[in-house]
TrEMBL record:
SUPFAM superfamilies: Periplasmic binding protein-like II (SSF53850). It comes from Nocardioides thalensis. InterPro entries: PBP_domain, Phosphate-bind_PstS. This is Phosphate ABC transporter phosphate-binding protein. Residues 391-489 are annotated as: Disordered. Pfam families: PBP_like_2. The keyword Transmembrane helix applies. Residues 456-468 have a biased composition (Gly residues). The chain crosses the membrane at residues 508-530.
Length: 546
């Protein structure tokens, strides 16, 4: 199957999953009391991460059909955090949490506004580039982390540098100046990149930056070819422009996937060059350390040191999560019951059906434990306002390729990730396959779904990931205590759902039936659902309603 056909198949599959998700929403609404008064939706606004923006805009388009009006403007993670602190938006999205004090000594806090972090999407920070030999674009470039750090600190300035040749096993590139493209705005992507360089290559990064730590504003030195652009889309447009030969920049993997443009295969700790597909990102993030202290304002935020150094051959080292900031104060000056309801339902869609589109779009769907924890954070909207309706919110109805319904500490997508081919091992190859096409590639694709086992399966347990725990086949809950499968890695705790309801005690085995029914019934169910909401709220046509 060629690249375009494969991508089309991915998108069609995601579309079918979304249809199933919408059908599930309609079915849940029909189960509720049809005579009960429903809170009408209200437009909500957010700003922030452009790293996350492509999938967020996809979700916004999806929920618009349900009468939800969500407006999201990028501008960068720093802008999102500032706008949220200034009460000018209803939510924000950022790759990094509030820092307390930023790299310039300025306050970086919520300014007293009550909030919670909610993981919203995972992905890999990719290095897209334009490099031609003659008129032919190179699509299989390989670079080590050290080489990348030197490129983005002006220590390597030409594509014919011996270190680049060595990374590509002797393959030489033209005598062509390198132009690094960095972000001009306050960017979470920049913060993630500079955190990685500070942790892994401090002797290269810190002399360039002049201090230790991360920065959201990339420092550009006078007299160099480095250029800066605002937003991920402008970085990508600059790289692929007619004048872009020799350019390289950093963006979320979704951008080169969308542009059908190549990305660098980055050397990982296992000695393999890999790209940030949803599979390789999922593997890497099994080593993310998540703050599990529910009493901490930083609950659910990430430490990525273990991700950078993951020894699995499939792991993409610069993988991370982005976070939504949601207002949790009962007296929040921007929020109303209608806005909280819209935000809750938008988040519910994003964490469930919306995650099925993450992979095809160039992101990686969230694992079960983080979706569960996200549901707990949404519950804070109801704690702030009892008028918010959170019925029929059960994580077991989410259709997500990472989920093992019987064990929240397993990540099926990571376990099923194909091993990289031997031609991508250091000292061999390079492989002749293209990058930037969202193709899992690799070897040993596993048709039975059990997943190839690498040297380290990412901490899913000493055997099959259940750690010897006996699981109730009906409820999916552990019958006896056992190994959680997180030894030496992320301290993932099994989260509790907002509440269990009799109508929600179904297991993942029903999903296939639900999807099949959705394909047949969704048009009528969806129309009925929207009419019921509008009729119950008394909303005029075009105003939406709940």
């Amino acid at each position: 199957m060629n690249t375009r056909a494969r991508r089309t198949a991915f998108v069609l599959l995601a579309g079918l999953c979304v249809i199933a998700g919408l059908a599930g929403t309609a079915t849940a609404a029909n189960r509720a009391d049809p005579g009960a008064a429903r809170v009408p939706y209200a437009t909500i606004e957010g700003t922030g991460s452009t790293w996350s923006e492509l999938i967020v805009q996809k979700w916004i388009a999806d929920v618009d059909a349900n009468g939800m009006s969500v407006v999201y403007t990028g501008g960068g993670s720093t802008k999102g955090r500032k706008d949220f602190a200034q009460n000018s938006v209803d939510f924000a999205i950022s790759e990094i949490p509030y820092q307390g004090v930023d790299e310039n000594g300025n306050a970086d806090t919520s300014n007293g506004r009550d909030f919670a972090y909610l993981p919203i999407v995972a992905g890999g920070t990719a290095f897209s580039y334009q490099l031609k030999i003659g008129n032919e674009q190179v699509r299989n470039l390989r670079l080590s982390g050290e080489t990348l750090a030197k490129i983005f600190t002006n220590k390597i300035t030409n594509w014919n540098d011996p270190q680049i040749t060595e990374d590509n096993n002797g393959r030489e590139f033209p005598d062509l100046a390198i132009t690094p493209v960095v972000r001009a705005d306050g960017s979470g992507t920049t913060a993630q990149l500079t955190t990685w360089m500070d942790k892994e290559y401090p002797s290269i990064w810190r002399p360039y930056f002049g201090q230790s730590g991360l920065t959201s504003y990339y420092p550009v030195k006078d007299g160099t070819r480095m250029t800066s652009q605002a937003g991920s889309d402008q970085v990508m447009n600059t790289i692929k422009s007619s004048a872009g030969n020799g350019y390289i920049g950093y963006v979320e993997y979704a951008y080169p996937v969308n542009a059908d443009y190549p990305v660098v295969k980055v050397l990982n700790k296992a000695g393999y060059f890999v790209e940030p597909t949803q599979w390789n990102t999922a593997v890497a993030l099994t080593r993310a350390q998540i703050n599990q202290n529910k009493g901490s304002q930083d609950y659910l935020t990430q430490i990525l040191d273990g991700v950078y150094r993951h020894p699995d051959p499939r792991a993409y080292p610069i993988s991370s999560y982005s976070y939504m900031l949601i207002p949790t104060g009962a007296d929040d000056q921007r929020m109303t019951t209608s806005k909280r309801q819209t935000l809750a339902d938008f988040i519910y869609y994003s964490l469930c059906s919306g995650q099925t589109a993450a992979g095809p779009y160039g992101y990686s769907p969230l694992p079960l434990n983080l979706v569960q924890a996200g549901f707990q954070q949404v519950a804070k909207l109801k704690q702030a306002d009892n008028g918010v309706d959170l019925t029929d919110r059960d994580v077991r109805s989410c259709n997500n390729p990472t989920f093992d319904g019987k064990n929240p500490n397993r990540n099926l997508l990571a376990e099923q990730a194909p091993m990289p081919p031997e031609c991508d091992k250091i000292g061999q190859g390079p492989c002749g396959t293209d990058t930037g096409n969202n193709d899992p590639g690799g070897e040993g694709e596993d048709p039975d779904g059990s997943g190839p086992a690498g040297p380290d399966d990412g901490g899913t347990g000493p055997d099959d990931g259940t750690g010897g725990t006996e699981i109730d086949p009906e409820t999916g809950e552990p019958i006896a205590p056992g190994d959680s499968g997180t030894t030496g890695e992320a301290a993932y705790a099994t989260s509790t759902l907002v509440e269990d309801r009799p109508g929600d005690s179904r297991t993942f085995g029903w999903l296939a039936v639900a999807e099949l029914a959705a394909l047949v019934l969704v048009p009528g169910l969806f129309v009925s659902f929207v009419r019921r909401r509008r009729s119950a709220s008394g909303a005029a046509p075009g105003q939406g309603g709940r």
